[in-house]
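quick q for whoever's on today - can somebody do inverse folding on this one?? i tried earlier but teh output was garbage lol. C-alpha cells:
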C-alpha cells in the first residue's frame, strides 16, 4: 500500500509541476521539453528506478545521467539555433525526475515543499526580477550580515557562564542581540520597502518597532522645520512611544513568558492610551499635501556588526550592574538603576531582567523596573523633542510623553500594592 501511495503522490506532484510549467510558458511558441505529461512521466521513472534495487542507487543515477545527456544535447542545439542561454527549462526537467526519488526516500512534506517552492520560483519570475532591480547591493550585504549573526556566530558561542560576575552565557547574550536585531531589521525592511513614502504615521508606527528614541529625534527635527504637518508630526512622536511598549512586551515574551504576561496588561493599556492621544492629534491636524512630501530620512541599517557588538557589551555591563544593584541595595537599587539606564538604551536592561540578570526579583518588581526605565526614556525623548522642535511646537508632545511615563509608573505601583 505504501508503494501505491508513493506512486500516486509522485504522479500528482509531477502533474501539478507540469501544469504550472505549461501555464507559465503558455504564450511562448518555441518548443521545449517538459509539461503536464512529461513531468509526471519523469517523476514516475525516477521513483521506479529508485525502487528497483533497494539500497542501490545505481539504476537511478544511470537514469539521471541519461536524462542529463539528452538535456545537454537539447541545450547545445538551442544555443546554435536561437542563442537562448536560459537553463530554467532544463533544471525543471531534472527536478521532475528527482521528485520521484524524494517521494520514495523521504518524508512526504519534503516532496510537497520542494514542488511548491519550485512552482513559486518558476511563476514568480517577473516579481523576483523586479525585486532584484529594486534591492540594492547594500541590502544584500545587510542580509548577509543578518545571516552571519544568526547562522555563523550563534552556533559557535558556548551556553555556559564564562565569568563569576554574571550567570549569563555568551549564547544568551547573543540571543538577546538577535532578538533586538530581528525586530529592528523587520521594521527597517517594512519602512523602506512597504510603507508609503512621505507618511508620518507609518514612520512613527514602524519607527516605534525600530527605535522610538531615533524616531522621536527624526520627527522632532521635522516638527521644528518648515513645511511639516504640525499636529500629525506631534501625533507621530506620541505614537512611536506607544508602539515602544508593545515592542518591549514582545521582546520580553521571547525570554520570560510569565514576566511578559504580567507586563502585557499595563503595556497594552499604555500603548492604547498613547495611540488614542495620537489619533486625536492626527484628526485635529490639517493635511498639507506639500508638507507630506517632505518625508524624513529613512532608518539607517540596524545590522551593522559594530552596533551589534556595542549592544552585546552594553547588555553584559548592564546585566552585571543589575545583578550587583539587586544584591547590594535590594529592589530599591534595581529601581534606581532603571531610572538611570532610561536616559540611554533601555533594551539591554529589559533583556537582562527577562533573562534572569537580577536573581530573586519578584515579577511585580521586575515589571515596575521595566516601566520605570521606559518612563525615564520618555523623559529623555521629551527633552529631545523640546530641543529639536522648540518650545512652541514641541511642548505638547513632550508633555504628553512625560504624562505617559507617569501613568506607567502609577499603574505599576498600584498593581504591585
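ok took a stab at it. sequence:
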Amino acid at each position: 500500500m505504501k508503494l501505491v501511495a508513493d506512486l500516486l503522490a509522485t504522479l500528482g506532484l509531477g502533474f501539478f509541476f507540469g501544469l504550472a510549467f505549461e501555464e507559465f510558458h503558455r504564450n511562448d511558441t518555441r518548443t521545449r521539453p517538459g509539461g503536464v505529461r512529461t513531468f509526471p512521466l519523469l517523476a514516475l521513472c525516477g521513483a521506479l528506478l529508485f525502487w528497483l534495487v533497494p539500497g542501490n542507487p545505481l539504476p537511478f543515477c544511470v537514469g539521471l545521467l541519461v536524462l542529463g545527456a539528452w538535456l545537454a544535447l537539447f541545450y547545445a542545439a538551442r544555443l546554435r539555433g536561437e542563442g537562448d542561454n536560459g537553463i530554467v527549462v532544463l533544471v525543471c526537467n531534472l527536478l521532475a525526475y528527482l521528485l520521484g526519488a524524494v517521494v520514495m526516500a523521504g518524508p512526504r512534506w519534503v516532496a510537497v515543499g520542494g514542488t511548491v517552492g519550485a512552482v513559486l520560483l518558476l511563476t514568480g519570475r517577473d516579481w523576483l526580477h523586479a525585486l532584484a532591480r529594486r534591492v540594492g547591493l547594500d541590502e544584500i550585504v545587510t542580509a548577509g550580515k543578518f545571516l552571519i549573526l544568526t547562522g555563523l556566530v550563534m552556533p559557535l558561542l558556548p551556553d555556559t557562564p564564562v565569568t563569576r560576575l554574571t550567570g549569563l552565557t555568551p549564547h544568551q547574550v547573543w540571543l538577546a542581540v538577535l532578538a533586538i536585531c530581528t525586530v529592528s531589521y523587520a521594521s527597517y525592511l517594512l519602512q523602506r520597502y512597504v510603507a508609503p513614502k512621505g507618511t508620518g504615521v507609518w514612520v512613527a508606527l514602524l519607527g516605534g518597532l525600530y527605535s522610538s528614541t531615533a524616531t522621536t529625534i527624526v520627527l522632532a527635527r521635522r516638527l521644528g522645520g518648515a513645511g511639516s504637518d504640525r499636529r500629525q508630526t506631534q501625533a507621530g512622536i506620541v505614537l512611536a512611544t506607544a508602539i515602544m511598549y508593545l515592542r518591549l512586551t514582545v521582546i520580553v515574551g521571547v525570554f520570560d513568558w510569565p514576566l511578559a504576561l504580567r507586563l502585557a496588561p499595563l503595556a497594552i493599556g499604555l500603548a492604547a492610551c498613547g495611540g488614542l492621544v495620537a489619533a486625536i492629534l492626527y484628526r485635529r491636524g490639517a493635511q498639507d499635501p506639500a508638507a507630506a512630501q517632505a518625508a524624513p530620512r529613512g532608518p539607517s541599517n540596524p545590522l551593522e556588526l559594530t552596533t551589534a557588538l556595542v549592544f552585546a557589551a552594553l547588555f553584559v555591563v548592564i546585566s552585571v550592574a543589575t545583578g550587583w544593584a539587586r544584591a547590594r541595595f535590594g529592589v530599591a537599587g534595581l529601581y534606581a538603576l532603571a531610572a538611570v539606564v532610561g536616559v540611554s538604551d533601555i533594551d539591554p536592561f529589559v533583556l537582562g531582567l527577562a533573562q534572569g540578570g537580577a536573581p530573586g526579583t519578584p515579577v511585580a518588581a521586575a515589571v515596575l523596573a521595566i516601566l520605570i526605565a521606559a518612563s525615564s526614556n520618555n523623559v529623555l525623548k521629551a527633552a529631545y523633542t523640546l530641543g529639536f522642535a522648540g518650545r512652541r511646537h514641541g511642548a505638547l508632545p513632550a508633555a504628553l510623553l512625560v504624562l505617559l511615563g507617569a501613568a506607567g509608573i502609577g499603574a505599576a505601583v498600584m498593581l504591585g500594592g
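fwiw The mean pLDDT is 80. also Residues 136-416 form one domain. so keep that in mind when u check it
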